[in-house]
Amino acid sequence: MTEIVADTRLRRGADLIVAVTALIALLPLFAGIALAIRLTSRGPVVYRQCRVGRDERPFVIWKFRTMVANAEDIGPVVSGSEDPRITRVGRWLRATRLDELPQLVNLLRGDMTLIGPRPEVERFICYYSPAERELLTVRPGVLGPGALLFAAAQSQELTVAADPEAHYVAYHLHPKLALDLAYLARRGIRADLALLTRTARVVLKR
Fold it and tell me: What is the pTM of this model?
């Protein structure tokens, strides 16, 4: 128990350092992205969506908007890489994962940790098995192993799926959660550094 508390405090301290440092250093990039979104499409710069956090408490996740305004009113919650709702700037933001940068605010607030299982939309939580619900006992991550490894395949398949949400539940949700559970079982500095390295490689390849 003492080790868990110590790890939690250390992780939270690291999250605060990363969030504050990155928000200050990346302020010009934030401004540039915000301007690009404003100039190329109508609607807010930041997209807000309710996700399920630790202990199943809902919180609002922040992202740079990559789709047309009110996209969820005209299509499914999940989307593929060729979804017509995605804007030109949004396609680039998704490819580089820069759309996730506003989650540094979630990191600062304590809604999320830097590395952990990605937070899910509430409508999909009912599909979690009892074992998978273990993921809801920890703070969700800005970077997650399941989301990272399944991102490319999921994006391509959901583009052509007749029912993207049903396809996501049937073919992507549980394998992704299995990877998150495997990470949780070996969670520590070594596993976190490995995921950071893998994330950097994925982003640089794009």
Answer: 0.90
